[in-house]
Amino acid sequence: MQSINKEQISEQLLNDLITPLIACLKDSESKIRFAACESLYNVIKSLREVSLASFNEIFKSLVTASSDMDEEVKRAATSLDRILKDVVTESTPNCKYFNLKAFMPLFCDKLKAVHPGIRQLLISWINILDSIPNINLIKYLPSFLEELFSMLGDNNK
What is the pTM of this model? Predict the structure, then answer.
């Protein structure tokens, strides 16, 4: 009989759960988007470090949810953001699931957003990543510095 460890089960569960939840975040009904945010929160809270295997997909959805028109969805996105930051902070730098190099192109692309909520979210991620020992964010600074200066020159607060 083949032995399956907890990590393998978690990775399979992650794949089975994340895709439909991310799809629900695009639903036209705000209650569905809210429930999807809460469900993603619970998946990340349960699977912790393993959930970072889908970090880029989760982050894209988080950015979208943080700019949602519905206040309840935004609040749920704030909770999702908080748990995701906690998991990244506690798991890094020895996490085999979090890949900063793969994340940075997505991050730099999202910095082009003009929505103030998205900008705040992204700035907070710069602060979190910069605070994690052994993450050399300075190495990536040239790829997002222009967008940061662009934000400073914007009339939006």
Answer: 0.88
